[in-house]
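User: Fold both of these, please.

Assistant: Here is the first one.
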Amino acid sequence: MQITETVSEGLRREYKVVVAASDLDTRLLGKIEEIKPKLSLKGFRPGKAPVSYLKKTFGKSMMGEIVEAAVNEGSQKAVTDNSLKVAFPPRVEPEGDLQAVVDGKADLEFKVIVDLMPDFELADVSTLDVEKLVADVSDEDVDESLKRIAEQSRTYSSRAEGEAAEKDDAVLIDFVGTVDGEEFQGGKAEDFNLTLGSGQLIPGFEDQLIGAKKDEKRDVKVTFPADYPEAKLAAKDAVFAVTVKDVKKPDELKIDDELAKTLGLDSLGTLKERIKDQLKRDYAQASRLHLKRRILDALDEKHSFSLPPTMVEGEFNGIWRQVEAELKREGKAPEDEGKSEEDLKKEYHEIAERRVRLGLVLARIGEQNGLTVSNEEVQRAIAMRARQFPGQEQQVFEFYARNAQAQAEVRAPIFEDKVVDFIAELAQIRETKVDRATLFLDPDEAQEKLKGETAEKPEKAEKPKKAKKADKSEKAE
């Protein structure tokens, strides 16, 4: 077996491997000698069939297995002989006429393509200067949440016969929607509870039911928004035949001990304490999201090194498939994002590079500091996912048990969070007090607001919405 390096550029290595036809023939004869004692063929005593006959009879079928083994051996030998630290399993591209190889008339030739892991120096994470947004839970925040809970628990009483529906009333309706006289999927419902003014249905629908009375039939005419998720209905005029089966007015909104008791608590004071505790957890989670993003940004700024091409392309292809699927679902083209497809792909490719670079940095930090994810942690995460599918928990567990890649996708964010928490303990963290609205903004939008920046930034073009969405979804590979 002859292995020759043909390409050495950056992190890419390519090798030409040649396995002589005589070598393959020797392997074939060895295989025949191995199975010969076990063969019982008509016209021959067991184990006495001539090798020439066996080669003629079984040679071609056995040669396929021998060639496959030689390819695996050659690609592995190219890696081990050159002490390569691969970033991705080697790719093999056959060269020449494979049929001639199987027929024993030609040498086996193939190319081995290897992407190497980059060698880079980690930045000292203790020198990272990172901002953490924090906010205090105010009494107003608690009261606002308390009011929402009371409204969700609010009861309604039927209006007197002949009374018309008013804003904030609840109506029980049946409806059938049509576009151009044809019913459409999802446009029909029975015994649908609708609070007028809630904005639950498309604009204009609820307003046209104000003034309706019990047992009244009305045609509600609306136009679907141009950005409606169902592309076939976007910007279409529709008519809903509505039957009002009941009209109910809201009962008096009471925020007292009785409200707390309906929720299983002993008093309004206890309910407020529970709300405040939950808000603190929500604020802490939002604060951590901003901190994580700023840590990743700081790591990205501190590290610059060549990336394995195959790894980047794999990440980019995954992102681009999601973008294409979303555009198709919305009935849009790349140009609708305000840029050409080429420009969009360039931006998403930069996002893919960032993800891969951060993944490698986080993996190195985790490796050097002994950070790991236990099987128990993975199983707990899978159990949490299973609880999101009531009645199908067993199927979810079985899916992950059979799918190693799916388990890896569960393990990756757990590992990433561990590394981020490790860095947060060492980095220089500056807390910045903000209001609740800012805390719950997208990290990029929050930074722009704090810096007093506007959407018009001549030195840097605005990213399309989908690019922003992809960019903030960080993951470690």
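And the second sequence with its predicted structure:
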Amino acid sequence: MTCITFAAGQARLPDWRAIRDGAPLTLAPGWRDDVAAGLATLEKALASGAALYGVNTGFGKLASTRIAEGDLAKLQLNLLRSHAAGTGANLPRPVVRLILALKAASLARGASGARPEIVETLLALLEADMLPDVPAQGSVGASGDLAPLAHLSLVLVGEGSATDAQHVTHGGATALAAIGRAPLVLGPKEGLALLNGTQVSTAIALDALYRAGDLLRAALLTGAMSVDAARGSDTPFDPRIHALRGQPGQIRVAEALRQLLAGSAIRDSHREGDIRVQDPYCLRCQPQVMGACLDLIEQAGGTLEREANAVTDNPLLVAGGELLSGGNFHAEPVAFAADTLALALAEIGAIAERRIALLTDPVLSGLPAFLVQAGGLNSGFMIAQVTAAALAAENRAMATPRSVDSLPTSANQEDHVSMATNAALRLTPMAENVEGILAIEYLAAAQGIGFHRPLTSSAAIEAAHARLRGVVAPWDEDRLMAPDIAAARALLRDVEVPLA
């Protein structure tokens, strides 16, 4: 896989996606100079004898407690150990890859007071695919993603655990030895620099962002298939309609749907004499709904791209040689982006579920009830639609904003928190639900198109239909539905639908 190279602070969304998917990372030359400048500022501040938060003081509510010079290294190690209080299942490996890369790139900007050895060790773990075991739960998205980043950082000092590419788990010291590294002794501020920051919530949200974009494209394909299966009109996708509104996502989705349906003989067969004046909203309003979802996804992408390039620990070593305390660790932008993605995911699934309901209803679709002949003896897609409804209902519940649910921590020192990590974590199950709904629509729309033979759909839809029929037979009589849904899910992960 091609190595990704960028200057710290200048990566783009495709760079992070490639790293998530296994690409190695090299930071562009020059970052060591920035790190050296930051370290010089830190050393000067320490020499002044001033109280420096988290460097020679305690943390959070204990910030007024001064730490003796001889205990500064112990302070940083204690920080990692005490804050490794996470719980739950470990984060997926692609997400941990992102966290390592995000943290390395942030520290490489030189504002955090971490030595080059810290950055190099993070990158070495990433390159070897020796990934720290990071429990998913335990961060409220303020003061940084403290607990999960503590678990990740313990490996750098030879503690904690990491799992290699063969899924063998090693203690921290063994993991480092396996990649030719020795455990690090933390310098002043390095523990705090590692734990402070929004890299965990950002990584989880980035992973969900990429999935949301993929699912939206898959939904355009299944939605176009449903239009032809229901003998719907392509008039609602006329560009003149969408130009009058001017919403950019709507215009792009309408164009994509027109391209997907172009040349359909099924559509041509009912241009004249069709007594229906307008289709139900789930067919007709796809540009308006899916376009709004596209705009939300891209808005969230902009926020997350900026956050991925940011320095979000505290205090920060800034131009002019000062050490300033602030609040960049507060992950409100990530929380809002995650909540936005949740809305988009919920709506992508909701409108797709309505199309499934339409296709299985003979009154609305004109197709056999539940898309099967000999109804009664056969139930066809009856319960598949129920499954889709259950998944859509789950997503509606999970779409409730998390960012407004602040819960004070650290004896009210951290009295407003973002809940960004919770906001991001719920996106993965939501994406799984959407994928299940779209898989059912894929099956239902393909079944509906089959009833129109010998008429054919467009080239794009016929290709998608053929891919499905290569692994899933038509539904001639009742059989197990679950294997068909699983097969359709797998195919939808590789869908490519251009969006201008």
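The chain has a mean pLDDT of 94.
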